[in-house]
Amino acid sequence: MATKKLDDDDDLNNRRNQTIIKATPIVATNDSWVTLYEDVLDPTDDDSEQILHELYQNLPWNVETDQFGPQSRPTCYFADPECTFSYVGLKLDPPSTGSTPGNNKWHPTVQKLRECVTRLLAVAGPDDPSSPSNESSRPLLTACLVNLYPQNKGFIPWHSDEIRAHGKDKVVASLSLGGPRRFQLRRRRRVDSCNHHTEEGETKPRMVADLWLPSGSVLLMKGEVQEHFEHCLPLEPEIIGDDAAAGDDAEMSFKKRQEDVTINPLRISLTFRSIVPGYESSNNRTIATDQ
Ligand SMILES: O=C(O)CCC(=O)C(=O)O
Ligand SMILES: [Fe+2]
Fold it and tell me: Mind telling me which PROSITE patterns this protein's record contains (predicted)?
C-alpha cells in the first residue's frame, strides 16, 4: 500500500519491501495471542496521512445504536457476501449495491488495506504461534468494522469482542491510522455461582497492557483473547495533573501545551475480522449481550 508512489522504481520498491516490521508480543499463552506490529505502513510516508483523510471524508460513517444506546463512535462495515457481524444487539450485514442484494462492495482503499494486513499475517512467520493458520480456501480476513475517533471525541469502553462468528482462528487485526490513541487490556472478571467476582489468574495484576497505538501499526488479537481479556480505547482527560489549579504560570504552560499537542488526535481503526460466511444465518443465533 505504502509503495503506491514508487510503482515505477523497482530499486526503491525492493528497498521498501525490506522495511523491518517490529513485532511486540503482548499476550502469548497456549491459547491467546495479542501482538503489536509496528511500521506496517511507513509513518514517514505521507500516504498514511492521505489515506486517513480520504477515509475520513469518503466512508459512509454512521453512529449505530446497540442495546446500550447510541455507540460512542461512528463506524462503517465492509464484508464479503454472507459475512454478518452480530454484536451487542446489532446486526451488521455486508453492504449491497442495492439492485443486487448481497453483492459485496468493499471501498477500494479498505480493500487495499485488507490485502496489506493479509500479507502481514501471512509473513508473520510460520514459527510464530500467533500467526493465523487459515487452512480454509476462503480469505482469512472476510470483514472489516471501521471505527472513527474524531479529534477529542470517540472512544470505546471496556469490552470483549463478540467473536462467535469468527471461526477457528478468531482473528481481530486492527490497523491504526492517525492517532496515537491509548489502548488498554486487562483480565476479565467473572461472577461465580455465589455471585462473587473472581479474576482470571488472580495472583497476576489485572491490567496487562496500557499503550499508545501508533499510526501504521496492526494490533492482532487471536485465539481465546476475548474469552480471557477485555480492552478499551479511552478518551484522555483534557486537563492532566494539577496544572489548572496551580496558578497562572501553570495555567499558561498548560494552555501552551494544549496548542502544541492534541491530546486525543483524529484516528481511524480498521478492525479486520475472520468472520465465517453464512455463520449467523445458518445458526440463526440469538444476539449475545457481552459488551
Ligand atoms: O480501534 C481499535 O483499534 C479497536 C476497536 C475495537 O475494540 C472494536 O472495534 O471492537
Ligand atoms: Fe474491541
Answer: FE2OG_OXY
Is-contact 265 178, C-beta < 8 A?
yes
CATH: 3.30.530.20, 3.40.50.300, 3.60.15.10, 2.60.120.590. Which one for 4-280?
2.60.120.590
Task: With residue 174 as reference, give the H or E element that holds it.
Answer: strand 172-178
- Ligand 1 pocket check: which of 271, 274, 290, 291 to mutate, most ligand atoms within 8 Å of Cβ? 271
Q: Is the CB of 269 under 6 A from ligand 1?
A: yes
The pLDDT value recorded for residue 122 is 87
pLDDT at 117 over 80: yes
Task: Name the amino acid, one letter, at 2.
Answer: A
Torsion (CA) 26, 140, 133, 125 in degrees, nearest 10:
-60
